[in-house]
Amino acid sequence: MRRRTLLALAACAVVPKEAHGAPPSDEDAYELDEVSRSVPRHGELVCPKVDLVTHRGAAIRYDGAAVVHPAFRLRLVAFEALAAEVAVSHFGRKPTKLVQLGTFNCRRIGGYPELVSEHGLGNAIDVAGFDFAPLPPSADAAGTTSPKLDRRHLGAFAVRLDRHFKLDARRSPESAFLRDLARRVIARPDLFRVVLGPSYPGHHNHFHFDCAPYRLVDVFGSADA
Ligand SMILES: [Zn+2]
Question: What is the whole-number distance in angstroms between the Cα of residue 26 and the centre of ligand 1?
Fold first, then answer.
């Protein structure tokens, strides 16, 4: 508990003003909470030894296999189910592919050399977007697609944060989907505790999700609150 408090305090040094939320309570204990994130500021980085598994996606396939801690894998499975549900409500079908930019990667947090990144514990994923196949004729004919789709979204298409999220541009169906997904993820701290997106420096092209021992949300900037 004490170590977790210290970690939360250490994390406060790295969070921007927009961050909000208290450290997780004991009821939300997570398997990696007690692992120290502190590392020497200089020299070769040795990441904490943790179990890692390969995950290729359950509800949605990944374009590249994820290498993550088993506890984080469970969070990914739940996230895929949520992403599939949000996609169906916007586009009438779930994505065929989740495009990810990185999972396990033994490195320090940029600008904070005394802390190992959650990627270094297999406790994080960077999601760049989703690919959709053409709408199945059966779904179309049965009228089961609640959303009204333009022709462009009846065929195959891709949704990417760097092209579609745009903080202040005109809203597109792709942007609406990504924003809705982000809001739904933010509303589910049982999925991920840290949710970063385009309003956070260096995240214009991906969502970063992790289960660090603290809460940090920065996707829409001041609109997060
Ligand atoms: Zn990341």
Answer: 25
